[in-house]
Every structure is written in structure tokens, then in C-alpha cells.
């Protein structure tokens, strides 16, 4: 349930994190939501209509600055393009991070178009097709190799086109990031090479004369537990130091993953990134000699862009059924699958959501906010308290900056695509 308690007290104050407004946004004197200093109405007319994703560069910049301040100065920051590849946003982020991580040939094209230098792009992902491998080798990006078969295929493509292969090994670690929203390491996985098979693969990289680029270890995602993140980082350092002994050269780069989560729901707390940074700094100072000249990379998607986005959708119908009020909007899970609770969640909970023009008004009624798709899965807010909203009013769903449009089944049911703006 969304309470609207003292949101009005925040009018005119800067930078107060309130989860009811997605943590970063404010209201004007009239109680209307402001994103980048503009009301939802102004943003919608600027963009030409609803549904609309608004990405606030000030929030994104503040996140990057906070990460830079908290992490050891030697640690590089990469952005994982899959979190949000919207071209203006990607170009904006690319100017502020040290590299981009992509997971398809399509994302590779987007990353190159963003202006990022090719050697600062790395390409991970299971099932890279020959065309994608060739495009990556030609562009000169680092390939994070995910299997023995992929190594042989990639090496033979490099040979055919007369290029050197820049190869890192993606390791499937023998541990996972405990408490992650999505687990991507530990046990049988399609991602990476099981740690016990990595030494023989490293020898093969040497035989093939590839340009060894180091290791990539990604153990999980959407994690809010500092201790679990620190533990995974410590385990990652120990693992790569051990594996490095079988490598043709000390690893130039270790991409240690990330997994930094965001609070989406009441009771969840923002990550203490200072504590992560301090502990990481200590572990790096005590790192074994074989990693002495290694560059360390954190790759983050959601943490950088997730809370800088707001999804604006308009109420097209208001109806009562079985004693409950339904606000039916022109948006839905075809744009914002995650907010409907159908993207990597077990128990559905409401993303923070407000009546945009009355974000600070007292809640007066219990409603269900749903999308326009003809499926019971299409729920944006269940049984939540809002000020009265009528047909034509705008609803704002927060936490829409990551895994929104491109993580949603846009073609499902044939409704129009959303608009997007970066402000
Ligand atoms: C998805 C993914 C990321 C980004 O994860 P976030 O939780 O958005 O930070 C980073 N690296 C890899 C390999 C991924 O698959």
C-alpha cells in the first residue's frame, strides 16, 4: 500500500529520498509530481502522448557520481546495456562510464553508436552466433567466451578474417550471490565455463595465440545485501587469482560483475555502497601478486538507471466490479512487464505508483490500476490507496528506468509502442 503521509512536506526541498516517489522525485507547491522540474502533463505534451517513459539524467548522473565516490578510485565502472539501451540515454551514460557490456550483436551496434571506444566494450552472453562473433572481432571488442565450443568457433572466425581474437573467459563460479533477484552463477548454468574447466581452456587460449583479456564473473543481480555482495566479491578475487595461475599471462582485466540492487518495495533499504567500496578497497589492496597489474571492473545496469525512470500512463476507463474500483490505463505489461510482477519475481508487489497531478494529496480510495491488455496478468497496482483518479488523469509508475521497454513483450496484443524521452 502506498501511503501519502508527508509527501507535501517535501515540496520545494531537494534530494529527499522517498520511496513513494521512487526515491528521487519531488512535488510542486500544488502537489503535482515533478520529474526534472516538469509536471507529468508538461512531459507528456513535450513527448507527444502516452504511454511515456521519462528518464531523468540528473538522477542517473547522481547515481554515477555516488558510485564513483564510494568505489575505490582504481575500480572501473561499466554499464550493462541490457538494462536500458535507449539511444540518447546510452550515449549520455557512455560519456560517464569506463566501458559498456553488451549481450548481443544488436547491443554491440548500439554500444558502438553510443560513442564508446571499441576496446572498452565487452560482449558476453550464451549462444553468440557466428555473425555476432565476426562483428565483435572486426570491431575489436573483448569477447567474454562462454564455452569451449564458442572458443573454437571464435578462434576459427578470427583466423578466417585475419584478425587477433581479444578473449576473456566468463567463469561460472562455484558460488552464487546469495539473495539475488536472479541467480546467474553457481551450479549448472548456461552462462560461462565451470571454474574447474577453466584451466584447460586457458591453455587452449594460449595455444590459439589469442590476446588474453582476463576474466568475467557475474554471480547475480538485484541484491540489497551488502554482506552477500562483499562475500561474492571476495570469493571472486580468490577464484580469479587461483585461475590466473593457468593463464597465458596475468589477467589484464577482471570484470567482477555487480548485482547492486535497488529498493522497490516498502521495507527495502538502499544499498550502503560506501561499505561495499571500503571493503572492496581493502580486498584489492591485499590482492595476490598475480593480480598486481589487473584492472578491476564493476558492471552495473539497474543500479545506474533503474530509479531514474518514470512510466506515465493515462486512465482510459474507471469501473467498479465486485465492489472494487479499477482504473484502466493505456499502458501495461507490454511496456513495463516488471511492474506487472511477471519479470523475475515470485510474489507480486506494487511498484511505487502515484496519481501524477496529485502526488501529495491524501489517499481517499482503494483502487486497482491495470493495463489495457486483455489478460489478468496486466496489473500495475493492486489494492492500493490513491486520491481519486478519473478518466484522463495520468498515473506515474516509478522504478521504470531499467528492464522496462526492452524487457517487455511490446508486440503482445498489438497496442502502440511507448514513447521515451531523456530529460
Ligand atoms: C544483466 C547483466 C548485468 C546487469 O545486471 P544489473 O542487475 O542490471 O546490474 C551485468 N552483467 C551481466 C553479465 C548481465 O547478464
Outline of this structure?
The chain is an alpha/beta fold and 423 residues long. The chain has 2 domains: 2-56 and 307-422, Beta Barrel (Lyase, Ornithine Decarboxylase, Chain A, domain 1); 85-300, Alpha-Beta Barrel (TIM Barrel), CATH 3.20.20. The chain contains 10 helices and 22 strands.
Ligand species: pyridoxal-5'-phosphate
Full CATH superfamily name of the largest domain: Alanine racemase
Strand tally is 22
Number of continuous helical runs? 10
Kindly identify the CATH topology of the largest domain: TIM Barrel
Structural class: alpha/beta
Question: Beta fraction of the residues?
Answer: 15-25%
Helix content: 25-40%
Gyration radius, in Å: 23 Å
Mean pLDDT reading:
93
CATH-level-2 architecture of the largest domain: Alpha-Beta Barrel
Low-confidence stretches: 1-17
| Through-space gap between termini | 29 Å
CATH class of the largest domain: Alpha Beta
Tell me the domain tally: 2
Largest sheet: 8 strands, mixed
Query: What would the principal axes of the Cα set say about the shape?
Result: elongated
What does this structure look like?
This protein has 423 residues and is α/β, with parallel strands linked by helices. Helices cover 26% and strands 24% of the residues. It has two domains: 2-56 and 307-422, Beta Barrel (Lyase, Ornithine Decarboxylase, Chain A, domain 1), CATH 2.40.37; 85-300, Alpha-Beta Barrel (TIM Barrel), CATH 3.20.20. It has ten helices and 22 strands. Strands 4, 16, 17, 18, 19, 20, 21 and 22 form an eight-stranded mixed beta sheet that branches. It has an eight-stranded parallel beta barrel with strand order 5-6-7-8-9-12-14-15, surrounded by five helices. It has a three-stranded antiparallel beta sheet with strand order 1-2-3. Helix 9 links the parallel strand 14 and strand 15 (295-300). The chain is elongated, with a radius of gyration of 23 Å. The chain starts with 25 loop residues before the first strand and ends with a strand. Bound molecules: pyridoxal-5'-phosphate. The site of pyridoxal-5'-phosphate has 16 residues, from strand 15 and helix 10.
